[in-house]
Amino acid sequence: MAFALKTDGTPTYALTFNGKAVIKTSTLGLEFKNDEKSLLNDFTIAKAETATHDSNWEPVWGEVKTIRNHYNELAVTLLQKGTDRTLIIRFRMFDEGLGLRYEFPSQKNLIYFVIKEERTQFAMAGDHTAFWLAGDYDSQEYDYTTSRLSEIRNLMQGSITDNASQTPFSPTGVQTALMMKTEDGLYINIHEAALINYSCMHLNLDDTNMVFQSWLTPDAEGDKGYMQAPGTSPWRTVMVSDDAREILANKMTYNLNEPNKIEDTSWIKPVKYMGVWWEMITGKSSWSYTNDLPSIQIGITDYSTAKPNGTHGATTANVKKYIDFASQHGFDGVLVEGWNIGWEDWFGHHKDYVFDFLTPYPDFDLPGLRDYAKSKGLKLIMHHETSGSTRNYERHLDKAFQFMKDNNYDAVKTGYVGNILPKGYYHYDQWTVNHYQYVVEKAAEYKIMVNAHEAVRPTGIARTYPNMIGNESARGTEFQAFGGSKPNHVTILPFTRQIGGPMDYTPGIFEMDISKANPSNSSHVNSTLANQLALYVTMYSPLQMAADFPENYSRFMDAFQFIKDVALDWDESKYLEAEPGQYITVARKEKGKSTWFLGNVNGETPRISNVSFDFLEQGKTYIATIYADAKEAHYKTNPQAYSIRKVVVTNKSKLQQWSASGYDQYRGSR
Amino acid sequence: MAFALKTDGTPTYALTFNGKAVIKTSTLGLEFKNDEKSLLNDFTIAKAETATHDSNWEPVWGEVKTIRNHYNELAVTLLQKGTDRTLIIRFRMFDEGLGLRYEFPSQKNLIYFVIKEERTQFAMAGDHTAFWLAGDYDSQEYDYTTSRLSEIRNLMQGSITDNASQTPFSPTGVQTALMMKTEDGLYINIHEAALINYSCMHLNLDDTNMVFQSWLTPDAEGDKGYMQAPGTSPWRTVMVSDDAREILANKMTYNLNEPNKIEDTSWIKPVKYMGVWWEMITGKSSWSYTNDLPSIQIGITDYSTAKPNGTHGATTANVKKYIDFASQHGFDGVLVEGWNIGWEDWFGHHKDYVFDFLTPYPDFDLPGLRDYAKSKGLKLIMHHETSGSTRNYERHLDKAFQFMKDNNYDAVKTGYVGNILPKGYYHYDQWTVNHYQYVVEKAAEYKIMVNAHEAVRPTGIARTYPNMIGNESARGTEFQAFGGSKPNHVTILPFTRQIGGPMDYTPGIFEMDISKANPSNSSHVNSTLANQLALYVTMYSPLQMAADFPENYSRFMDAFQFIKDVALDWDESKYLEAEPGQYITVARKEKGKSTWFLGNVNGETPRISNVSFDFLEQGKTYIATIYADAKEAHYKTNPQAYSIRKVVVTNKSKLQQWSASGYDQYRGSR
C-alpha cells in the first residue's frame, strides 16, 4: 500500500498484490455540508507513524477457535492549510488485505461537522467481473447479478425486484460487500468494518474509469452524517488474494472491530432451532389471528370477541407440535412468529404504535407454552417485528426484554419489514444504524441474543457484541417461497453478505414444491435436498434453523439426521474449494470434538468436487457419512433424489463427488 | 351555528352571535395525499343527531373550584358518494362558543389515510383587529403584533425575530390561539382543544376574502398527518362574546378534553418555586461547568480533570443559597438548571446523545443538596433540557424519572431548545406532538409533574393529565433579558397562549436593569416592579416562580411579601376588567380560604382601574393591602417606584387605582 499527497494536497492511496494493481491511485477525503474546504485537499503531512501488531483472540463463537490479528499500521497525520484542521488516515495492512479509516482527533477547528459525502475512491485496475447487488437505502434482498463492471449500468434495472421497502439511488450504485474477480486472477472484496453511528456505505461506479466512490446513505434531509470530533469513520476494507478460498477465510472484518465488550458471555450460546415461520412464509398459515378486524389499535382493539380466522399459525396446539418435534430431535429452541397482537394490519401504513411486544393472541398460551417448552428441555425464541417503527420499538424495549427474561426467552429475532419510521429515514442511514446498535447493546444488558432481520448488513460488530448471533440483511431462504432465488445464490453469499458476520439463512427446506403447503403459491425452492443440508456447513452461523415443517422432515428422517448432527461452533475451518458464483467446499471441525463436517454447494452447473482429506488427523480412521445428490437429482426436476452412504477415510483419502445443480455434503467422524 | 351542504356536497358551517356574523359560511373537509376525492365533497347527510349535555367537574387545580360543561351537540354523519366513506362532523355549541371536530368511524373504505391538508375554514365577517404571532413550525416565542387582518401580510416580516429554532411558512400564516376584535364589538378567539397524536394547527389567511384556513404542521416529507380510523381530529374552537372578560373565563378548551385519566392525584400539587435560572438567562453565570472542553461525549468525556470556569451557576454552594432563601420564605421548590453534564456544547449541532439526565457536574452534590433541601422542607425541581433531541430523551426517560423519584424530585421542567431530532421534524408536527404526550403520560406513571418549555402550545390536555402543571410555549420572561418584550405582552397572553392552559411565565423580576447582573447585557425588563407582582394573579398558573435573585428580593422585602402570600390555587376567579392588549383586572379567591387576591396589568398606556368589590362576602370587612405603582413609576424610567398601603374594604367598596405603564395589584383578606 502506498500513501501520497497529490500536488494540491489531496491524500491518495494505492494497493498492489504481488506486483498486480488492486487499487490504482485513489483519492481520500470527506466533503462537508456548507464547507467549501471540507477535508478534501490542501493537506500537508504532519506526521507518519508506523506500528506492527500481532495478537490472537478467541471469539465467543466462530469458525475457528483462535483468530490472529496481525497487521502493519501506518497512521498519517494531515494538517490542512488555511483551516488548521487535523485529519488522521489510519491504514492497517494485513496479509489478507487493507483496512483504512478516517480519524478526527479532538481539535479547535473541527468539532461538529456534517458529511455531505464521503469521497473514498477505489480505482479498479480493469473491467472486473463483479457479484453485485443494486445499491439501495432500504433493501439488500435482491438476487446477485454477475457481470463486468462496465455492464452494471445496463443490468441495473433488471437487478431490482420488488421489495417491502426499497430505495435504489444510482444506475451504477452497488452494495458492499462487493466481490470481484480480475482477469489476471485476483479476488478483490470491498466492504466496511465497525459501522457504528455512521451511515452505511454503498459504492458508486464511474464506469468510464472504473472508479468506485463511497456513497453514504442520506437522512431525511439528504445529509449523510452528523459527526463530532473526536471520532472516526468505520473502516473501509479491501481484501485481496489470488485464491478465492482466502477471501472466505479472511478475518480482517472482525479484527478491525473493537474487542468483546460483554464481560460475562456464559449466556451466549449457539442455537439450533425450528419455528412456526415457514408456514406463514409459504402462505399455508397466517401471522394474524382474525380477519374480522381490518384496523387494530393496540390497547384498544378487543380481540376477545373477534372470530379466529382458522389460519393462525401461532396457536398453542401448533406450537406444541413444533416443541414436541424439536425437543425429540435435540433442538435448542422454537421460534414463534405471529404470537403477539397487531398482525391484522401491521404493514404498509407508517403505523407508529404497531405492536406492543407484550400481548399474546388469545389462542397463544404464553405461560403454558413457556412451561411446556421448559419441560421438554428447550426454549421459545421471541419474535419482535417492528414493521420499521423504530421509535415504537425503543419505547417498548425495556419492558419487552424484561418480559422475555421473565418468561425464559433468551433470544429474539427482530424484524424491520417496510419503510422506516420516522418517515424520511432509511434502513441504512446513520439514524437507523444507531437504532440497531442501541437494540443490540440494550439486549446485552438483559443477556439477550439478537438475530436482526432487515437490519443493516453486519460489519463484524459481533466481535464487540457477540450477543448479535445472527442477521438476515440479504436475500434469505424466504425468497424461495416468494418466487425463488438463483441456484448459485449460496455460492455468492459467503463472499459478500457473510464477510461481515453470520447470516440467519434458514436452510433445511426438504419440500421444494411450495404448492404442497399452499396451493395458491406456485414457487419452487431452487435447490436439491442435499444442497439444503450442505448449507449448514457452507453458510457459517452459530444460529441455524431447520426451517421446514416437522411433517416434511418426517418423510426423510435419514437426511434429517444430518441436521440433527451438524455442529454450530467450530475449532477449525478449512476452505477446500471456492469460486464465487460456482462452488464452495468447506470442512469444519466441531468445537472441542474430533468430528468433522464438510459441505459443498454448487451453482447451476453440475460438478465433480475433488476433496482431499489431508486435514484429518494422521493415522486415524474416520467413518464418513456422505449425503449426496443421487445421479438423477436436479434442483428443478428432481430435488429430493439423494443418497446416503458410509465410507472409511483417512488423511490420505481422496474423494471425487459429483453434485447436481446444487450440492454435496459429507460428515466424517473418527 | 348552522350546518349545510353545498350543492356539490361540500360541508359548511356558519356561526352568529346575537344576530352578528362570527363565522360566515365556511367549508369543512380534509385533503388526503394521493386521493383525489379525499373527504372534501360529494357528501350526503346520512344522519343528524342532536344531544344536550350539562355536567360539572372539579379540576385537580384551577382558576375555579367547579367547571360546568354545558353544550348542545349536533353530530352530522356524512356519506360520500362514490367512495362509500363515512365522516362525522361533531359540533358542540356552548354559550361561550363553538367546538367542532372530524370523526372517522370504523369502516371498510377508510382505515389508513394521510392528510395533505386539513381544510377547515373560518371565514371572518370583516377586517378585524387581531393579536397575532407569525405562524411557525418551531417557535411561539415572538412578540404579538396587533393589526387589522389586512395588514398581516405587510407586517409579517417585522413580526419575526430571531429564535433558537424557527420555521415560518406563509406571509399570512398565524398561530392559534388567535384573538380578534371586530368593529361591532365582538371578541373572537380561534384555537384547538385536545391536540393528541395530530399535527398542530396554524391558520393561513386569504386576505382578499378574510378567510382563514387550517394549515397543519408537516413532517419531514411534507405530510401533515398519518391517520387511522377509528379516530378523530382535535377540536377546532371558536370562542365568541361581546365582553372580553368572558373570553378569559371561557372553559370550553378544558371541556372539550377527556376527563382526568390519573386515578390518584394526591401527588399533584401547585408549586411556588425559585431557581438557579435567571442568572444564566441574564448571562451572569453559566449552565456549563468548564471552558476547557469544547466537545463533550457523554460517558466518555472526563470532567474530573477539567478546570471549572468559575461562572457555573449550579454549584452546591449557590444552590444552598437559593434553598436557604426559598425555605425561609415558604417556597415549595428550587429549580436548578445546568446541574447535569453536557452543557459545554449542548446546542446547535443536531447532537443526538446530548445529555444523560443522570450525571451531575462535579461541583453539584446532588445527594447532599437533596438531603439539605429535605431538611429545609422543600424539594429540588429537576431540569431536563433535551436540546430537541427527542429520541435521546425517550431512551433515557425511564431511568431519568426513576432517578428523580429516588432523589425526592417530583416535578421536572423539560426543554426543547433548538431544532428537533430526528432532523426534518418540527416542534409542532404530529411526530413531535406525540413525543410530548408520551413524556407527560410516562411522567404520570412515575407520579411526576411536568412543566414543558418550547413544547407545543397547550390545548387543555391538563384536564386529562393534570400532572402537566405548566408549559412555556410562548414568549416568557426570559425575553426581557434577551432585549425585552412589548409592555402590553401580558395583557395579550391570557387571551391567547393561556386559552389552552397555564403558562410558566416566570414573573417576579424586581431588578429591571439587567446590566446590574451582567455588565455586557444591556437589556431592560419592560415592566414596573408592581406589574411583576400583578402577574401572579393575572397569569393564572398552579406553578409560579419567583424568578429574580434572592439578593434582589432582599432589597424589597415589603413587595416580596406579596409573592410569599399569593395563592396558587383558587375557588373562584372574577374577571373585572379586560381588553386585549390594554388591560386585565382579575380577582381570585384562594382555594378553601376567604382570602382574595386581585391583579391588574396594563399595557404601555397609564390607566385608572375602576374596581368594585361587590364580589366580597356581604357584611364582612376586609383589609386590602394595595401594592401599586407609585405616582412617579414608569416601566422604563422608574420601574421600582411602588407604594404599599392598607385600606378597609367591604362588598360595597369601590376603588379607583392609577397604574403606570404596567400595573396595579391588591390583596384583600378578611
Summarize the structure in words.
The structure is a homodimer of 670-residue chains. Helix content of chain A is 16%, strand content 33%. With 670 residues, chain A is α+β, with helices and mostly antiparallel strands. In chain A, strand 1 (2-5) and strand 2 (11-17) form a beta hairpin. The relative contact order of chain A is 0.10. Residues 663-670 of chain A have low confidence and may be disordered.
Q: Count of helical segments of chain A?
A: 12
CATH topology assignment of the largest domain in chain A: TIM Barrel
Helix-strand makeup class of chain A? alpha+beta
CATH class bucket of the largest domain in chain A:
Alpha Beta
The shape of chain A is globular
The domain count of chain A comes to 2
Radius of gyration of CA atoms of chain A, rounded to a whole number: 25 Å
Task: Name the CATH superfamily assignment of the largest domain in chain A.
Answer: Aldolase class I
What's the main sheet of chain A like?
10 strands, antiparallel
Largest inter-chain interface? Answer: A-B, 33 and 33 residues
- Fraction in helix of chain A: 10-25%
As residue ranges, the low-confidence spans of chain A are 663-670
Strands of chain A, total number: 36
- Supply the CATH architecture of the largest domain in chain A: Alpha-Beta Barrel
Roughly what is the average pLDDT of chain A, rounded to an integer? Answer: 96
Tell me the span between the first and last alpha carbons of chain A.
Answer: 45 Å
